[in-house]
Structures are given as structure tokens and as C-alpha cells.
UniProtKB/TrEMBL annotation:
<dbReference type="GO" id="GO:0004930">
    <property type="term" value="F:G protein-coupled receptor activity"/>
</dbReference>
<feature type="transmembrane region" description="Helical">
    <location>
        <begin position="58"/>
        <end position="81"/>
    </location>
</feature>
<dbReference type="GO" id="GO:0005886">
    <property type="term" value="C:plasma membrane"/>
</dbReference>
<dbReference type="Pfam" id="PF00001">
    <property type="entry name" value="7tm_1"/>
</dbReference>
<keyword id="KW-0812">Transmembrane</keyword>
<keyword id="KW-0297">G-protein coupled receptor</keyword>
<feature type="transmembrane region" description="Helical">
    <location>
        <begin position="101"/>
        <end position="122"/>
    </location>
</feature>
<keyword id="KW-0807">Transducer</keyword>
<keyword id="KW-1133">Transmembrane helix</keyword>
<feature type="transmembrane region" description="Helical">
    <location>
        <begin position="200"/>
        <end position="224"/>
    </location>
</feature>
<dbReference type="InterPro" id="IPR017452">
    <property type="entry name" value="GPCR_Rhodpsn_7TM"/>
</dbReference>
<dbReference type="InterPro" id="IPR050569">
    <property type="entry name" value="TAAR"/>
</dbReference>
<keyword id="KW-1003">Cell membrane</keyword>
<feature type="transmembrane region" description="Helical">
    <location>
        <begin position="143"/>
        <end position="165"/>
    </location>
</feature>
<feature type="domain" description="G-protein coupled receptors family 1 profile">
    <location>
        <begin position="38"/>
        <end position="258"/>
    </location>
</feature>
<keyword id="KW-0675">Receptor</keyword>
<feature type="transmembrane region" description="Helical">
    <location>
        <begin position="23"/>
        <end position="46"/>
    </location>
</feature>
Length: 285
């Protein structure tokens, strides 16, 4: 499929049927409210409490910033879904620009969020693997610098590289094939252009496959370590329980011996007293 076939819908052309359902708009509105409320609470807590301004939380704030920007993308999608172009709409160029911006922002934010999640998993791995050196390895300066590198890398992968490669041909073919305003979504039997397909493979491997593998390895190691520690604690508790039971049995045996000896002494004393009383009674007679 040539790049000329992938272009925004002509004026008066109906958008694809796959983006029509109104329930999709309702879901986006709910997500916008939830994301705005949740991230606002996190930003307020980070700003108000100085104790929360740690290195690990600075990574979380960068992730919250990327998550907050998804509200803009959702708002654009709602606008594109709710307003259909009619007749010779003079805003068709603006609509095409909105569609392209939505596609670029979506891929950009997906890149930033997934890499940040991998970054957080590595930070947790360091906290478990190098607990004594954690404070010296993970510093606020390093985490902020790494977050900046993640943002710049995502911009390069999602925006700069598609624009610069093949004179922007990859960008046009990719986003015209992916964003919902494209007429290419109707051409279900046609495959994605080779240039755009190659970029999508590169993007999926670098942004999805590698970060997901890092996340699985990091949290898998943490799970194994926590499981090992739990077993050690359970074994220690069992040993302590057995020792405690033995001490209790030993104490009970000591108490029993003392009680038996005391009872024997009391019986002997009573016997002697009875014998003495009998002798006294006999002599009195």
C-alpha cells in the first residue's frame, strides 16, 4: 500500500465504523476523571510532604507526569469521535493535525510509561539485591537524569526518527495507518507499508518487549528472594516453637518433681507428727 493511499478522510467522508460506539467516549471520560484525580493527589502529597521527596518517588512523579498527559490524548480522541466532518469543512486540516498529534502523543506516552515502569522495577531490584549500597547507588540526581534521558529517548523514537527516516515517509505511512481519522482503516485487506512495518517492529521490541522482559526478570528475582526469606522465617519460627515446647516440657517436669518432693516431705512430716502424737498419748495413759 502506497503512502498516497493513507491520508485523512476527505471532507464529508464518514469516519470508520470502529470508532463510533458512544460507550468508548464514556469510558474515556471516566478515565480522564480518574487519572486527573489520582495524579493530582500524588502531586499534592509530593509537594506538601518533604519526606516523600526521595529518589524512588522522583521516578514515580515522572511517571505521573506522563500519565497526566494521557488526559490530553483522551480529550482529543473524544473530540474526534464526537464531531464528524460534514460537507466542505474548512477545519479538515485542523482535524488531520489533531489526528496526527493524537497518534504521535499516544506512541510517545506509551514509550515513556513502559520504560518508566521498567526503570522502577530496576530500582526495586537494586533495593533488594544491594540493600546496603542502595542509598549510594540510587540518588535523586541520578533518577532525575535517567527520567530525562527516558523522555528524550521516547521523543527521539516516537517523533524524530520517523520524521527523519526516508524524508518523513515512515511518519506519514505509520500515523496515517494507525490514527483513527485515517481512511486506511477501511482498507482492511491491505497490509501496512514495509517502511512503517519495520519501524513498528523496532518500536515494539525497544519499547514493549525489552521493558517487559526487564520487569519480569526484576520482579521475578524479588519474588524468589522474598519466597526464600519467608521459608527461612517459617523454619526459624518452627525451630523456636520446638525449642519453646521443649522448655515448657522441661519446666513442667521440674515443677512436677518439686511438687512430688514437696508432697513426699509433707507426707513424711504428717507421719512423724502422727507417730509423735501416738507416743505422747501412750505415755499419758
Amino acid at each position: 500500500m502506497n503512502s498516497t493511499n493513507c491520508k485523512p478522510n476527505a471532507p464529508g467522508e464518514e469516519p470508520p465504523d470502529i470508532i463510533i460506539p458512544k460507550i468508548f467516549i464514556v469510558i474515556l471520560v471516566i478515565l480522564i476523571i480518574a487519572i486527573t484525580f489520582g495524579n493530582s493527589l500524588l502531586f499534592m502529597a509530593f509537594h506538601k510532604f518533604s519526606s516523600l521527596r526521595s529518589a524512588s518517588n522522583s521516578i514515580l512523579m515522572s511517571l505521573c507526569a506522563a500519565d497526566s498527559l494521557t488526559v490530553v490524548v483522551f480529550a482529543l480522541d473524544i473530540s474526534l469521535l464526537a464531531h464528524k466532518p460534514k460537507g466542505t469543512n474548512p477545519d479538515s486540516d485542523a482535524r488531520s493535525l489533531m489526528c496526527t498529534f493524537s497518534g504521535v502523543s499516544t506512541i510517545l506516552l506509551i514509550s515513556v510509561i513502559t520504560v518508566h515502569l521498567a526503570f522502577i522495577s530496576v530500582e526495586r531490584f537494586i533495593a533488594v539485591k544491594f540493600a546496603l549500597r542502595y542509598q549510594s547507588i540510587v540518588t535523586t540526581r541520578r533518577t532525575m537524569l535517567t527520567s530525562l534521558v527516558v523522555w528524550l529517548w521516547a521523543i527521539a523514537v516516537a517523533v524524530v526518527l520517523p520524521h527523519s527516516a526516508l524524508d518523513g515517509k515512515i511518519f506519514k505511512e505509520l500515523y496515517h495507518a494507525l490514527h483513527p481519522c485515517s481512511a486506511c482503516s477501511r482498507e482492511k485487506r491491505k497490509t501496512m507499508p514495509p517502511a512503517a512495518l519495520g519501524y513498528v517492529i523496532f518500536w515494539v521490541i525497544s519499547v514493549l518487549v525489552i521493558p517487559i522482559l526487564i520487569i519480569l526478570c526484576s520482579y521475578g528475582y524479588i519474588y524468589l528472594i522474598s519466597r526464600k526469606h519467608r521459608r527461612e522465617i517459617e523454619d526459624q519460627v518452627n525451630i523456636q516453637g520446638a525449642a519453646t515446647t521443649w522448655e515448657e516440657m522441661k519446666g513442667a517436669r521440674t515443677v512436677a518433681i518439686v511438687h512430688i518432693n514437696k508432697s513426699s516431705c509433707e507426707n513424711s512430716e504428717q507421719t512423724l507428727l502422727l507417730s509423735g502424737n501416738r507416743n505422747v498419748s501412750y505415755y499419758n495413759l
